[in-house]
Amino acid sequence: MTGTYRAAIDHAVAELRQGRLAAQRWPDGQLVFYPRGIRLGHGNETPDWETVSTGTVVASTTVHEHSHPEYQAETPFTLLIVDAEGARIMCRLAPDRAVPAVGDAVSLSVVSGARGAVIVAS
Prior knowledge:
The chain is α+β, with helices and mostly antiparallel strands. The protein has helices at residues 3-17, 69-72; strands at 22-25, 31-32, 48-51, 54-63, 77-84, 87-93, 105-113, 116-121. It is built from 2 helices and 8 strands.
């Protein structure tokens, strides 16, 4: 792993541990999540970091059965793909929310759990 990539991952993980979802804003305006150390064809550009807190639902699916014992007790749960200014982020829907329609706006947050940080939409 290159030092630049490692630094990007370390920054993103530190933000998650603080309850923030951080994405990279590159000089051309593109918002990128999952962090990258470099962008091919973009030389030595350095991105800025910003917190992502909202997005628009692109797709959803509800998991009714799961083969892994740790997740069986949590079924059913809904997974969403959310567009946050072009960055596509997979997250779980908060358990008390009705499943949003494609095109609906959602708020994104980071919740710490037994298995680590989870991105949650509500």
